[in-house]
Specification:
The complex is a heterodimer of chains A (about 400) and B (about 170). Chain A is mainly alpha-helical. Chain A has 19 helices and 6 strands. The interface of A and B includes residues 71, 73, 366 and 380 of A. Chain B: It is an enzyme of class 7 (translocase).
Chain lengths: ~400, ~170
Amino acid sequence: MSDLLLPPEKRYANIINQRRNEDGSELSILNLGPTHPATHGIFQNILLMDGERIVDGEGTVGYIHRAFEKISENRPFYQITVLTDRMNYCSAPINNMGWWMTLEKALGVEVPKRVQYMRVIVMELARIADHIICNSVLGVDTGALTGFLYVFQFREKIYEIYEEICGARLTTNMGRIGGFERDWSPAVWSKLDKFLEEFPPIWTEFENLLTRNRIFMDRTINVGAISADKAISYGFTGPNLRAAGVDYDVRVMQPYSSYEDFDFNIPVGKSGDTYDRFCVRNQEVWESLSIIKQALAKMPEGPYHADVPDYYLPPKEDVYTTMESLIYHFKIVMGEVPVPLTEVYHPVEGGNGELGFYLITDGSRTPYRLHFRRPCFIYYQAFNEMVKGQMLSDAIATLSSLNVIAGELDA
Amino acid sequence: MALETSVIQNKLIENFGLKVSDFVQIHDIFTFEVTPESIVEVMQFLKDDATLRFNFLTDVCGVHYPDYEVNRQFAVVYHMHNWVDNVRIRIKCYLNAENPEIDTVSNLFLSANWQERETYDFYGIIFKGHPQLKRILNMDEMTSFPMRKEFPLEDGGRTDKDDRFFGRTTQNC
């Protein structure tokens, strides 16, 4: 029988057994979560405490597991995008674009340069939105609410741009195989320009508020540090790994969607602690802004989608008037598109690390197997080791700076 | 000097002979098969060898092939990445349907710990020597392994929903 039905003192036997310190002083058990506001999602951590200090811990995950991989095996390819939205919902467009690129790799679809640049823009906007949330909430968790409220209006501005592009804000379901569902309206371009103009001074102010703030530094420096070797072994990717001093970034290692056309730096930290993670993200926001500016400056002319009638829905007015378009429309909506027998792995640099899609097809309308490499599922297992010996309040700051998103972790 | 796939293949065959087989390039990833008994030594070699240097375990996942012969009905798929030469490889281990067992690689890569637990959780594949092999995303009372193909996505007895006209049958949903 499961240990869920047992009384707590038997349930976490391995923690309870070490209830006493060597000197005989008593340890206590603290149940952090599952829905504690400071855990930003549904994680439970059973912590063994010596006063304020964490001696050991055990994490439980899976509270919002929604069987995405199983559902994927039963849905046509285009219906899986909405599942990817709900993984890292702080940067849904990156997941969407990653999924389309995975499919395009499997199907052998070439997308026009313009689409690639447009994708780069939305992915970098999503990265900025993701980092805005993570860094400003780290401020909240260390007691600084102002910065959070101040920069959050710009996440809203980013969402307005998404809204102009695809009609949705948080779970975007953006794009199609081969491109976007419609060309970007003038409103998108003007909102982008406005964002690029207004956001940088605000972000500078936000940085000034925290980066050299004595209280913030005391709360984050040497808190939740991890060495580069340990981080690699634990499968860290993204800003968390770069904060430990390893310059691994999928956008550079394996450029997708024309990232090789842009000139940007990969900020790295040194000590892998909470402060370095914060600084790396801050810097990445500037790099993302620079990438967006370059993409806008170099934006090529051309179509907003690839010419692939097998996969890309025909214009709606044609569906009503021509037989060919009606057939394609029907086949695509029903998911009856030609799919080769193959397998692909496609990684993209998500907001918190290498987001990978491993797709096995069997020629049918659904994937035979689809596995999501969710970065935070893999690196969250290091959490207990990172907080051992630290104060409870440090554990909160560490969790916050790791940018663990429950939706992505639990799939 | 980039690391050529022929170098990987030759080195592996030289050291492991018949334990490694079916080398094939699928899209951008070089793929091969390893017998389940030798996964730990092969992975150790890939990690430690001075030329191969596959320092990063990107991903571990399971696959169920109920239509294959009984010795190959489960697969554990590992993706490894060499960050120095920027080369990815995919390793497949096929397992027996009645007794899906394979050695854990969580001693080599700490990241394998939860990924193997996830694979166990969804496919019932036993990772021998794993420090804490228990369910991770599903609840502990669960008795089945939901990513196996025979596990239906929805209750077949549902009457409130008729999807026959939309390409879905009780078999595929």
